[in-house]
Records
---
Amino acid sequence: MAPRPAGRAALIPILGEVFREHGYEGASLAVIGARTGLGKGSLYHAFPGGKEEMASAVLAEIEAWFEDNLYRPLREDPDPRAAIRASLAATETYFRSGRRVCLVGVFALGEVRDRFGERIARYFAGWRDALTDALARAGRPPGEARDLAEEAVAAIQGALVAARAFDEPAMFGRSLRRIEARLLG
Amino acid sequence: MAPRPAGRAALIPILGEVFREHGYEGASLAVIGARTGLGKGSLYHAFPGGKEEMASAVLAEIEAWFEDNLYRPLREDPDPRAAIRASLAATETYFRSGRRVCLVGVFALGEVRDRFGERIARYFAGWRDALTDALARAGRPPGEARDLAEEAVAAIQGALVAARAFDEPAMFGRSLRRIEARLLG
DNA sequence: TCGTGAATGTACCGATTGGTACAGATTATG
DNA sequence: CATAATCTGTACCAATCGGTACATTCACGA
């Protein structure tokens, strides 16, 4: 596939934040235009498929980031315990210590799940499986590893919801530390 | 306050489902009308404040339901361990074994949080505090009780997100059983 | 300096949004 | 039956939605 204009790449993080803050349907072309400083002409030039293509590009970037920065290290780091610790630290940074919301989680709860269902499931499954792998390599019995991983992935999502519901971002860090204790304890 | 027409009460559960499925902004008057079988005239007669009043009424019903069926029993049941078990069973039933989403959680993640922020926080705080109370009465040290409660409330939200992301409602029941083990173990 | 294609802003499209106005139907009360 | 209050459907409103069309501007190679 032909390389898209460079500007496109720069837009994706902005689009990500807009989708995070407003959700898929809530992210109108008006607010996207305002945040990117671009008119519809430019937006549709970079993303001929409109909003759907924008969201798809954002999802692709997120998938790639998590694969590179979380899943692969969890699977491949020779020190699985260190990898688990590092992955939780990266998670805290990525979600801005609870001030940022998980776009995939938001999508999962909304109507857009029908549109991106496969990729949403893949994002979560990738996380769970990578964590399962690390836990197993750290000595956990396979079944227990998978259970713990499933629990941790869900707990992270829940911590993001709760931190936002309480309007208390610090809750996210507390949750991550509890999760780390459970995983490594 | 004067009692609203009886029809109003019957509408609220329907409105709740619509808001759950579509979110606040996604629940257009068109779909609300279709689901309730009522025209705008009737809807605005029952809820002069429009969508905001509808959502507010739904939230009020949810708050009351949780207070009556979860929070108060957790605080008052002389057998706190039985109360915790019962509250988790009620939770599984309420969320239809993971097929139903938490409206308050959905609101917390969306833009509507600005509109209902206080009540969203109160819903979560009520849950956490009631569970903290039961755990303390069951013999947990106060700090540990509160931590466990916070973790459990977040975990329930996370389990709902994950169950929907994986499109695997059974995950919710699994999570609840793990939570029960942690709380009572 | 010119030409060319990419990049961009703007006007516009039909559809839909939340909300209002109001006339007519329905119901309860005398 | 008559009258009044309560409901309810429909037509309508301005604003906004996602998306298209197109004329203009821009950067850059020949």
---
Amino acid sequence: MKVTFNKRDPVYVQVVRHFKEQIATGNLEPGQEIPSRRELANQLKINPNTAQRAYKEMEEAGLIFTQGNSPSKITRDENIISSVREELILEAVEDFVSAIRPIKVPIEEVVGILKEKYNDDVFERRDKND
Amino acid sequence: MKVTFNKRDPVYVQVVRHFKEQIATGNLEPGQEIPSRRELANQLKINPNTAQRAYKEMEEAGLIFTQGNSPSKITRDENIISSVREELILEAVEDFVSAIRPIKVPIEEVVGILKEKYNDDVFERRDKND
DNA sequence: TCCAGTGTATTAATCAGTTAATACACATTC
DNA sequence: GAATGTGTATTAACTGATTAATACACTGGA
């Protein structure tokens, strides 16, 4: 478990996003246990309350569930899981579109640059994340 | 002059971005006068100090220049202007790539969704902005 | 039993951004 | 020359979001 934080977005938002990505890619499986609030806080060097806030959001979104006082687990609801993936993709695309449209760049030019950048640095990146 | 603000980013940042877009598209021409700090604040319903901060950033970035106490003007440096366009595009693409890559979606699928969304709502949008 | 680890809740402190209130020098216009 | 409208600077207050500190209740196992 490792997350690289940016300074722009709130930490708890970034934590939620990280879990969503892990769920979307299947890296975290349905029913799988996730670290306790305190342990996550230790691992990521963040405050336990920040971890708690992230988990609370995920719980309310149905991404994880908690029984008694045992560690939370990833939801087993496949509908939720697949919609997480869709949501992440759509959100990224919509942000991108609203960023790029005001500049009035032809779509094909955008796609060209996009493909180029998408394949960039893929080797170093593979070392880091997988 | 009209800008729709989101709540995520600081207002002064959004103002700067708006001007960059206008410069990049040629909607604001080299040497063209822009509203005074106080007038911009009036138009956008923001605090004069926020307008001042935005202009200060733009001045430091060489996007605008100010002589004496007459209203600031768009730079006449074509290098800066074209690099603004490049910068906006590259930044958007890089943000998008780093948002989409962790989800491990095939690039062609992404491009498909992107093209679809890019052409979406183009009619209503045209009414509003042009 | 008791204790360590869990989830949960409450309150305080911190921080960035924004707004606000003034002030000053300058120049253009009336 | 006075007035108005520029740009610029300084300082303080406010506000909402975020993070931090602390406490409480529960439970499963040693």
